Amino acid sequence: xxxxxxxxxxxxxxxxxxxxxxxxxxxxxxxxxxxxxxxxxxxxxxxxxxxxxxxxxxxxxxxxxxxxxxxxxxxxxxxxxxxxxxxxxxxxxxxxxxxxxxxxxxxxxxxxxxxxxxxxxxxxxxxxxxxxxxxxxxxxxxxxxxxxxxxxxxxxxxxxxxxxxxxxxxxxxxxxxxxxxxxxxxxxxxxxxxxxxxxxxxxxxxxxxxxxxxxxxxxxxxxxxxxxxxxxxxxxxxxxxxxxxxxxxxxxxxxxxxxxxxxxxxxxxxxxxxxxxxxxxxxxxxxxxxx
Length: 291
Fold this sequence. Notes:
Blueprint: E1 6-8, H1 9-20, H2 26-34, E2 40-43, E3 46-50, H3 51-61, H4 64-72, H5 88-91, H6 107-114, E4 132-135, H7 142-149, E5 153-156, H8 161-171, H9 176-195, H10 199-217, H11 222-228, H12 234-255, H13 268-272, H14 275-290
Parallel strand pairs: 4-5
Antiparallel strand pairs: 1-3, 2-3
Helix pairs in contact: 1-2, 6-7, 9-14, 10-12
C-alpha cells in the first residue's frame, strides 16, 4: 500500500467520486466517519480522513458483493435488483418513511415487478393501470403505495392490526383540514398531560446524563471505528458500562418517582412500555374517543 495521505471531507468526496466512478457526496463521507467505517483525524482544527482507509473501504465494498453473490448463486443473477446505487432517502421516499417498520422491502423492487417495462430478466409484463393487485402479506403497505403510484388499484391483507393501520394511513384519502385539526388537538392534549407530570424533567435530566456518559465511554466515531476493527469486545464493554450507568439511572428514577412496572402484563403495550409511556398513549386514545 502506498504512503498514506490525509484528505479533508470535501477532498475525500472528490477523490472517492473519481475512484469508484459514482457520485460520492460530502454527506456520504461524513456517514462513513460517523458510523466508524473510516477513522477521523483532527488536523489543525480540520476533520480529515485517510486515503488508505478509503481505499480499503471501497475495495472491500465496491463490486465485491455482486461478485460474491454471483459466485455463491449464479452468474445469471440480476444484480440490478439489489438497488445498491440508491441512497437511503430514495428507498424511503415520501410515505415509506412514515414509520420505521423493519420488515419492509424497498419501493424500487416492487415497482420493478409492477411497472410495464421489460428487460433481459423480466421478459413479460403482468400489470397495467386500472388492474387490481392483491398483497396477502402487506406489511407496512409498500406494494399498495407503489401500485397506487402506477395507477393500479391495490388491496392489502395482514395479520397484524398495527401493520394494517400503517398501510391504511399511507393509501387512504385524507381530509387534510380535518387531519391538521386532529393533530393540533391531540398535540395540545399530550403536551398538557406531559407537563402535568414530572416525566419531562426526568427525561431531560436522563438525556443530559446519557449524553455526558456516552461522550466519555462511547465517543463517536472513535468507538464505532474500534468496534468495527475488533479493538473492543462489544458485549463485554457494553455490560461493564451498563453496570456503571445503572446507579445514575436508579437515582433519577427515585428522584422523580417514576414507575417502571405496570399493574398488568397482558397486552403488547403492557409488556413493552413503561407505565408513564402507557399513560401518554392512553391519554391520546382517550382524547380520540371523546371526539
